[in-house]
Target: Glycine--tRNA ligase
Amino acid sequence: MAKNEKIPENTLFKDIVSHAKEYGFVFQSSEIYDGLQAVYDYGPFGSELKKNIKELWWNTMTRFNDDIVGLDSAIFMHPDTWKASGHIDSFNDPMIDNKDSKKRYRADVLLEEKAALYEKAGDLEKSAALLKKMGQLLEAEDLNAVRELIVAEEIVCPVSGTANWTEVRQFNLMFSTQIGSLAEDSNKVYLRPETAQGIFVNFLNVQKSARMKIPFGIAQIGKAFRNEIVARQFIFRMREFEQMEMQFFVRPGEELEWYAKWRDMRMQWHKALGIPENKLRFHDHDKLAHYANAAVDVEFEFPFGFKEVEGIHSRTDFDLRSHQEVSKKKIQYFDPEVNKNYIPYVVETSVGCDRLFLMLLCNAYTEETSGEEENQKTRIYLKFHPALAPVKAAILPLTKKDGLPEKGQEIYKKLKRNFNVIYEEAASIGKRYTRQDLIGTPYCIAIDHQTLEDNTVTIRHRDSTSQERINADALEEFLHKECSFNQIFDQLD
Ligand code: GAP
Model:
């Protein structure tokens, strides 16, 4: 394969998933007990990458923007929260079981996959008609007709190969448990399915304590839980995941202007992470949720197609109004500029940290083959943006003698105070470079005999493999400049 030629997509995703495990990014949860489906753990390099993603998002929201403050609300909330938000009544997916294989599927996903097949075969009209029909039936909650449509489309279970389907039922995605020692219904609490409600119920606490004036935003990072029926595609759809959500509170009537601003700002942010423009797109929602008056997804082209990474929604005053009604506590803002009390409108940006992680991993994974046909070599590296890379630099003495390790240790000890750096002296320098490429370290710093003479080191750049010599005393400044979030912020101004 020529340099940078596209790897076939199906094998590409498998390669990325096994790379993530082998090099300490993502492990299946409880693997020694054969794993827990759709739950994952992050390894030494994965946890560093995830921490960097969250810090970048947090700093973008709360430092880069003067009008956004942070919050860290609890996972458990009063059960009435979920009545007010509509999650108890309607946070459902339509499910269907195959009686022969006993496998469970999302009815809408089966139909969407059939529509994708029509599209692939070039029959765009048939594909669109099927999606339209499905949308109408789901909106009318006509689950019998959804089943009939699955049968009419001759959709069979991929495991049993039969169309021996149960009826379609609604399945609520919230996990519940009991608070306290009594297993009574009144003690029932839910694991939050989104972090946003913690922001809504704290609207007045935050606004008053931080003396915020509308328009302003509240940002939060935290775990969310959904009992997904179809849990597939690695960390794309998980049962326990992390969200990074921001609710921007605005004057009624100004929400669509803010919605357009946030939609563009969020797309610019994804591009600033180093994601090529042609791998990102907007997808406007055809069917709006009952509380929204505009909604769009930012989609990334994963090896399995364009899929949602982030949602931007204009949520009207639905949530605050419902909480006001259910709690019977006034949730209003007095706007001195217009001399009026009102319930603010909300524009939400909601991105999954794990999904962003998968996007960055897929985008970073690079296989380059070079050389003559009979003597080809493949180099694999992860081209993470230096500001997000789990390890910023590796300090590598050329040999284990002549005082090179001591000099390397001296440099390492200085740098590790401010950066996540690695010191390694075992194996050949080539093998050590390869290892750093595989975890995406942007810079390798080699210590050689010249270092002892003039205090200069070689910096090897991961993507180009080019090398330059700089003074060891300038390393800290070099890493500060190259690995700083400013590299990303400069593109947002
Ligand atoms: N508060 C709005 C909200 O929760 P959503 O579209 O359901 O909206 C927002 O979720 C984002 O959360 C998605 O764009 C995705 O990145 C992430 N997300 C949702 N469900 C997920 C899951 N099961 N696993 C991983 N990430 C998920």
In short: The first strand starts at residue 26 and ends at 28. Residues 194, 196, 226, 228, 237-238, 241, 243, 245, 308-311, 348, 350-352, 354-355 surround glycyl-adenosine-5'-phosphate (CB under 6 Å). The radius of gyration is 26 Å. Residues 265 and 492 are 8 Å apart (CA to CA).
